[in-house]
Amino acid sequence: MDGTLASGKGTIAQALAKAFGLPVLDTGALYRGVAVAVLEAGGDPGDAEFAARIASELDPATIDDAKIRTATAGAAASRVSAHPAVRQALFDLQRRFAAQDGGAVLDGRDIGTVICPDADVKLFVDAEPGIRAERRWRELQARGEDVALDTIVRQLAERDARDAGRETAPMKPASDAVLLDTSQLSIDAAIGKAVRIVSERTGAKPVA
């Protein structure tokens, strides 16, 4: 599952994993984990060599979810994820997770195009930029971060441009991905649509 920031893909991925009894990996958390580690070490997210070294030593079990969900972490993650050496360092970890017996759900920005090009089902989740910006703003407000909505709008546009324009593994729908626009969907409706897509493509029935 791939998609844009605040499109709902993470929530949908978690729901799909629960519905079909599969393990789930938020690959964006890996990049955010690298970004936070770089910042805490006093490094520059733009330093490809330093970020790659951090990525090669990353232990997913040590990632602090509270730390990686801030606006600062998200902006830094977009920068470190643009480094080919960082993406290569995390490639094998993601492939091993995807290849486990019984299957898995992975969400990110290059899963269907790079990490799992032979996945049984590929979804690309998106929503209108203004709607995504407001969703992200409300999420940060709920966590106690005092960030102006116009700041989020600007950061989201910059993030989209970096993710889609990077030379290595740019964010884009796989040629055989099903596009899921959540702009006018409630989260329950979006999840329901995603579950139906997976069932139709694989014949699998939800277990939960």
Task: Give a written overview of the molecule.
The protein has 208 residues and is mainly alpha-helical. The protein has a single domain (2-202), classed as Rossmann fold (3-Layer(aba) Sandwich), CATH 3.40.50.300. Helices cover 56% and strands 8% of the residues. It has ten helices and five strands. It has helices at residues 9-20, 27-40, 48-56, 65-68, 71-80, 84-98, 111-115, 129-142, 149-165, 187-202, and strands at residues 2-3, 24-26, 105-107, 123-126, 178-181. A three-stranded parallel beta sheet has the order 1-4-5, covered by helices on one side. The chain has a two-stranded parallel ribbon with strand order 2-3. The chain is globular, with a radius of gyration of 16 Å. The two termini are 20 Å apart. The mean pLDDT is 94. GO terms for molecular function: kinase activity. It is found in: Cytoplasm. It is an enzyme of class 2 (transferase). It catalyses: dCMP + ATP = dCDP + ADP; CMP + ATP = CDP + ADP.
Going by CATH, what is the homologous superfamily? P-loop containing nucleotide triphosphate hydrolases
Across the major sheet, the strand order is: 1-4-5
CATH topology title:
Rossmann fold
The gross shape turns out to be globular
Tally of DSSP β-strands: 5
Helix fraction, binned, reads: 55-70%
Low-pLDDT regions:
none
The largest sheet is: 3 strands, parallel
User: In CATH, what is the class?
Assistant: Alpha Beta
- Count of runs of 4 or more consecutive helical residues: 10
Oligomer: single chain
Strand percentage lies at 5-15%
End-to-end CA span = 20 Å
CATH architecture: 3-Layer(aba) Sandwich
